[in-house]
Each structure stands twice: as structure tokens, then as C-alpha cells.
Amino acid sequence: MQEAEETNAAAKPRSKRQKQAAVLRIARKLHRLAGVALFVFFFVMAITGGLLGWKKHAGEMLMPKTYAGASADPGSWLPMDSLSFLAIEALYQSTGQLLEVDRIDVRPDKGSMKFLFPRRNFEVQLDAATGRVLSVGRRHNDWIEQVHDGSIVDDWLGIPNGLFKVFYNTVMGAALVLFTVTGFWLWYGPRRMRR
């Protein structure tokens, strides 16, 4: 009877250990398969994420710096339509391209406005009070952000409502959670089994 109890006691830890080893094998397999399947996407996200983190610290390589205008008082600024016309003209004189303004980034504390153009990511900064051109440049950070979040695919393929972007970010977020959990288990599981 005592031998049977010792055999059962010895079998229990082995069974528990086998379960832990099975979980460890599953974690390793999930980690490896997800890593292989999503390698390119994680590589692209890592590179573009790093560039976006540096966008304001890379001189003007990724985006023009924000310049200050003559007055931060909006009451002294020129009308928006006049400033838009001046921005379009400044871009035409600088690049020879006649484009429409896509959006306007107002910097009240700086007294300046950034006029953003959709094609080729041009930006014209104007002094909001005088209309003087402060800068004409390219905003590389915009297309880098589109690559980073996947919205560039929506634009290229004409997918409505940013559906690819939502799908892509959901998959990448879930994969990051999976890598975190399985990576932790790959580190912790063997330590737990040694106890």
C-alpha cells in the first residue's frame, strides 16, 4: 500500500511538469508562428515608429520646424482666405506646383499657420499677421505615419472608412499582446519547472 502511495505521489509532480512543458511548447509555437507571419509588419512598424519619435529632433529632415510669426494676437492676423491664397502662391513660386490647401494647422502661441497640401506632403508656413513666408518644405512625417498605421493601404486601394487601418492595427495590437504573454511564459515557464 505504501509503495502505491509513493508511486502516485511521484506521478503527480511528473504529470504537473508535463502539463507545464506542454504549455511551454504551445507558447513557443505561437510565439514563433506569429513572429514569422508578422515579421515584415513589425519591422516596418519599428522603423517608422522610431522615425516618428525623432521627427521633431532630426533637424528638418522629417518635417520643417515650426517658426514664430510677428504676433500671437489673433485679432491682428490677416483673413484666412488671404493667407490661403498667399500659401498657394508661395508653393507655386517655390515648386512650380499649383495645389489646393488640404488642411491648416494654426499655431496661436507662435502666431503662425502651416498650410498643408495633400500631394507630395508640402507645407507652407506663414506669419499669420503679415503673411510673410516663414518656410516652404516637405513633411515626410505624414507619409511615414501613414505607413506606420497602415492608412497608406486604404489610400492606395481606395478602401473606405479606414477599414484596412483598423484591421491592421487590431492584428498588430493583438500580436503584441500575444508576444508579451508568450515571451513572458518562455522566460518564466522554465524557471517554474525547475522548482
From TrEMBL:
Source species taxonomy: Bacteria, Pseudomonadati, Bacteroidota, Saprospiria, Saprospirales
Keyword Transmembrane helix: yes
Protein source organism: Neolewinella lacunae
Protein's name according to its UniProt entry: PepSY domain-containing protein
Top-level taxon in the UniProt lineage: Bacteria
Keyword terms: Membrane, Transmembrane, Transmembrane helix
Keyword Transmembrane helix: yes
Transmembrane segments: 33-54, 166-188
